[in-house]
Amino acid sequence: MAIILQSVRVLRAERVVLDDVNLTVMPGEVVGVLGENGAGKSTLLDAIAGEITPATGQLTISGFNLVGLGVVEQSRRRAVLPQKPSLSFDMTVTEVIEMGAYPFPEAGSAEVDAWVKQALVWVDLTEVAPRHYLALSGGEQQRVQLARILVQSLAITASGEKPFILLDEPAASLDARHQIELMRCLRHLAEQHQAGVLVALHDINLAARWCDRLVLLAEGRIESQGAPPVALTAQALKKTFGLEMVVLPHPLEEGCVLVLDRVTC
Question: Rounded to two decimals, what is the model's pTM?
Fold first, then answer.
C-alpha cells in the first residue's frame, strides 16, 4: 500500500510542468516537497489528488490506478488540504470539521463526534468549536481546515485503509508555535496511525526537522530526494533555489541538519 508515481509527466495549457517524476510515499512516513514558486509542488499534489490527469506515466494509490477511481473512492483513501481552501457558507467550526467524515456514511454520530473532538485538540481549537468559521482569523481558518483533514484521515483508518494525507503549504498562515504543532501532529499520524503524508513546504529547516524524506523540485523535475542529510546538499539547494547555502549538523537534534544561506547583511 503506497502512493507510487512512475515517469509521470503533467501538462498545463500544453506546457510541461512536471516531467519524469518518480516518487513513492509509504504509510508511516512524512515526505516534504521543497522548491521555488512555480517549481511544480502544487501540480504534483493536484495530480496525486486526482485534480489533474498525467499526460504520461502511471500514478497509483494503494494499488489502484488513480484514473480509474471515482471521487468518493479517492476520498476514502486520501485527504487533501489545498493551498487556499475556500468556504463561503457561514458554518460553525464543528460543522466544517465534520465534513471530513462525509465520504463515510457508515460512521455513526458518536464516532464522528469523537474524531472531531480529537481533531480540535490536535489543532488547538477546542474553545472556538461553536463559533462561525467566517468570523475566524486566517490562521484559525487554516487550522479548522486541517482539522477537517484529520477527521477524514481518522475515518480512513477506521475503515481499514492506510490514510494518505496531501497538504499544500499548510504552514503558510500559521505562527511559529502552530507550525511546529502542525508538523508534530503529522508525525503523530504517521507513527501512530500509519498515515503516509506528503506536504509541500517553503521552510527548509522546518521540513528538515520533521520529515523522514525530502523531495526537491526544480522546473518540474526532481533535483534531489532522500533523507534530509542526503537530499539537502549545497549543490542540490543551489540548483533548486539559486542560492548559495551551507548545510550543517543540527546543534540539538542528532541526525538532523540545519540549512543556512551565505548571503551577508
Answer: 0.94
